[in-house]
Q: What sequence folds into this?
């Protein structure tokens, strides 16, 4: 496919994407729409034992929009920065610790 044809397809798709949300039927805004701050996070096993996977001071946000889309962020605060100060250049140990929450 030539560049001009590709560009035409992209423009056509963008126009459709702009029109579709306007054509959706109106819905009432959910009562829980908005952004919520995490107060606490705990996990309980089948015996009722409580654990804090991201620590007792976990932080996070939960957001719902008027179209019922949801986004959640949860993290353990105070995690060390990579020595390189570049998220793309962490050492294997730094990346593993970041992934595992160490």
A:
């Amino acid at each position: 496919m030539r560049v001009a044809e590709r560009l035409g397809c992209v423009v056509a798709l963008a126009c459709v994407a702009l029109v579709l949300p306007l054509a959706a039927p109106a819905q009432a805004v959910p009562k829980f729409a908005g952004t919520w701050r995490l107060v606490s996070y705990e996990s309980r096993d089948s015996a009722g034992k409580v654990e804090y996977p991201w620590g007792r001071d976990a932080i996070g946000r939960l957001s719902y929009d008027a179209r019922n889309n949801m986004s959640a962020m949860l993290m353990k605060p105070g995690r060390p920065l990579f020595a390189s100060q570049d998220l793309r250049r962490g050492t294997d140990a730094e990346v593993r610790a970041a992934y595992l929450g160490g």
